[in-house]
Amino acid sequence: MRRVKTGLVGAGFIGPNHVEAARRLGFVDFVGIADRTAEAAQLRAEQLNMPKGYESLEEMLDDPEIEVIHNCTPNEFHFPVTMAAIERGKHVISDKPLALNAADARTMYEAAQAKGVVHAVTFNYRFNPLMQQARTMIARGDIGRIHFIHGHYLQDWLLYPTDYNWRLEKEGGASRCVADIGSHWCDLIGFLVGARIDQVLAEYTTVYPVRQKPKQSRIAFAQATENEEYIDYPIDTEDFASVLLRFENGIRGVFSVSQVSAGHKNGLEVEVNGGKGSLAWRQEEPNQLWIGRRSEPNGWLLKDPSLLDESVRQYASLPGGHGEAWADAFRNLMRNIYTFIAMGWSMEADKEKINFPTFADGLESNRVIEAITASAKAGGVWTKIER
């Protein structure tokens, strides 16, 4: 596999995880970082053992050594950074949501397609070995025709009014909780059952209409500390939401998302109910897949390459009993993207080789987020996904 040289834009919480996952592949070299300032870029480059801290985004994009850009900036910068990278002919790996709205997401997708660059969005939960296995089992009819899908994604990191994050700010978009973690849940369930959401009915709740923002520069995560100085900051996005779903093929579903549920750190859960059985998975216990049955005992499928379908064994790198989790799924995603890039494949000519979420998936996610938000703003009415 030839070596691929890449650059990181934005080195907050998620950026270093992109770096760690890609470096584990063994053929990806990070050349440098562009950040808010030249000083911040240089500091983070040193911390992450990269040779360059760029003076600006433009300097990075003009560097002929770099083929790929990881866009790990806050949401409102996804569009300008990605569009600039596409214009320079760089492949782009973007964090989710792809854009603040579906119109921008469509522009990004069409620009990437027209330029012929590889484009990907980091919906990484697809790449847990047991999620690949569940998709295979559902597709071959192991649990029968699907009729109901349900689950949630619960966190507690914004439980207190003094918890703060840039996602709370107005620049982050019309939705916060659904856009941040609901996007993951909806993408994962669509991946599992191979069907698109057609209509949604949603309710949004804001627990804290006013939060306490620390008097300091923009930060990824902040919690209350003694003697901290705050300013009142009005909040107009949701702390939690509940959503009813209708899929194009007749499946019904429901899910909830929350960032204010005490005791839940990263509680993504999905369950699929069919005419012959059920499958359920918890992200915080990623090495076991629950199989529900009516006429025989329920069971657990443990993450073990020898027990998985042959087509998905590549996603389990370790033997049975050796746990694989979030970081490993992220690595699996990066492997698929970078293999596609290193092989010189084309998004148009080699469509059958695309095995990662693209900007088309990012656009679909933005459309779903917009419909959910529109439904909630209208007081909870059935809203069709506009495509």
Task: Set down the secondary structure blueprint.
Layout: E1 4-9, H1 14-23, E2 28-34, H2 38-47, E3 52-53, H3 57-61, E4 68-71, H4 78-87, E5 91-94, H5 102-115, E6 119-121, H6 129-139, E7 146-154, H7 177-193, E8 197-205, E9 210-214, E10 230-234, E11 240-247, E12 252-258, E13 267-274, E14 278-282, E15 288-292, E16 299-302, H8 326-342, H9 359-377, E17 383-384
Parallel strand pairs: 1-2, 1-4, 2-3, 4-5, 5-6, 7-12
Antiparallel strand pairs: 7-13, 8-11, 8-17, 9-10, 11-12, 13-14, 14-15, 15-16
Helix pairs in contact: 1-8, 4-5, 5-9, 6-7, 7-9
> What is Rg?
21 Å
- The proportion of residues in beta strands is 15-25%
Ends apart, CA distance between termini? 38 Å
The major pleated sheet works out as: 9 strands, mixed
SSE pattern:
EHEHEHEHEHEHEHEEEEEEEEEHHE
Structural class: alpha/beta
The order of strands across the largest sheet is 16-15-14-13-7-12-11-8-17
Number of domains: 2
- CATH hierarchy, class of the largest domain: Alpha Beta
CATH topology of the largest domain: Dihydrodipicolinate Reductase, domain 2
The CATH architecture of the largest domain can be given as 2-Layer Sandwich
The CATH superfamily of the largest domain is identified as Dihydrodipicolinate Reductase, domain 2
Number of strands: 17
| Coarse shape | globular
Report the uncertain regions: none
Q: What is the typical, i.e. mean, pLDDT?
A: 96
Number of helices: 9
Binned, the helix content reads 25-40%
